[in-house]
Amino acid sequence: MLRTLVSQPTFSADWSSDYEEKSAEWFELFLDLLMVCACSNVAEKLKDDYSVAGVVYFALMLSIYSCSWSLYISFHARFNERSLLHYVLLYPFLSGLGGMLLASDPGADFTTGLVWMRTAAFFMYTWIYAMLPKARPSIWIDLVFLLVSLVLLFASLAFGRDDSSVVVVYAAVWVWEVPVHLFVGWKGYGIPTGCRIPFHIDHMTERLGCLVMVVLGESVVSLVINVHDKSRVTPRFFSMMQWAIVVIFSMAIFYFSVQPPRDLHAMRRSIFAGVAFNFLHWALYPPLLALGVGTKFVSEAIVNDTTLESPHVWLLFGSTALSMAIMFSLRLTHFIGRHPAPTDPHHVKMIKYGWWAIVGASPLLPLACAVFLEWSSDYQVDPIMALQVLGIFNVIWIVIESIVIHYLNAHGQTGFRNSADETAPLAAKAHHIRD
């Protein structure tokens, strides 16, 4: 489609689930590239300070970056807009994120970047409000949330005296824009019945998964570039790199292995399931990035020819366990109550119950592995051994789950079918918002 100066925005999806595919746009990849830098900056903060306070600060800063990134994802998953005016508004949005990266730490410059992003998003939604009357009963909520965030950030610029007060404002902005906004969306406060705007499920899922890969990929990138001293690349270092990729790649497989079709997606299933699906992704990003920081400590231990310190062992295995627990919860949003299905044969029900038990137990095993490694080595854990244990554990878990899914699929028992009784309440409201 040719670009015009201005254009008529349209909805990206409707409640019927019968709408066109929507892939990531080229300008969304700009956001992803900037988020790679953001993940690298935040990872270094955790590497420098992995105390409890350091972990909280790390999680908050990553959440602020990902929250800002998602402002546009939430917009683009609901609306189509490709005019030159839209690109003009994208420029301050991208520049704001770039300014946050340059500032790196809380302060006036970082806050200014946050203001730029939210101001750009505010005008994007204002344009939708003006040009798409059917969106007005719902879109005013987004405008109010952005306006309150801007008030908080401007207050921080005017009255913020030290970094601690600025961090408190950032935390307040995140709570306001994520948990509170999701809660309001779940309850539907201020939105007339039948006037909700649907998200393009495929696009939203793709973009959330893309950020998962950005977070995971940061650790791989940091391991394989900027090795100026070639004497460091010993066979042991090369082996470490291989096992680190096994760990990261297997975590990606675990995340992407069970993605339901559009009709059975959590965001289609119910409002609560969709809200939970989105919120769990906010919780997933910090432990995934912390896992990458753990691999950095492994790399340093190999370069310095030392053992892995106990806090580093627990960072590596603990972040894996927490990531798996959240991924298990993501699967619950899609499949709990659906599998086993009441119509499944008895032996299929037993297999599916076994599958739930296996996946549900997955977060406990990395913790057990960490305990065993420290006990067996008298707290002198070899860094390569730590990665090998973690990588082998992940691979075995994936193979077991794949065998179960393969058997069910071969016998036509995966149950990925449309269910009219679950989708009908949503489809019935399509006429309220269809363009």
UniProtKB/TrEMBL annotation:
What keyword terms does UniProt attach to this protein?
Membrane, Transmembrane, Transmembrane helix
Keyword Transmembrane helix among record annotations: yes
Note the superkingdom of the native organism.
Eukaryota
What parts of the sequence cross the membrane?
A: 50-72, 84-103, 115-132, 139-159, 165-186, 207-225, 237-258, 270-293, 313-332, 353-373, 385-408
On whether Membrane is a keyword of this UniProt record, the answer is yes
Protein name as annotated: Aste57867_14813 protein
Q: Coding gene?
A: Aste57867_14813
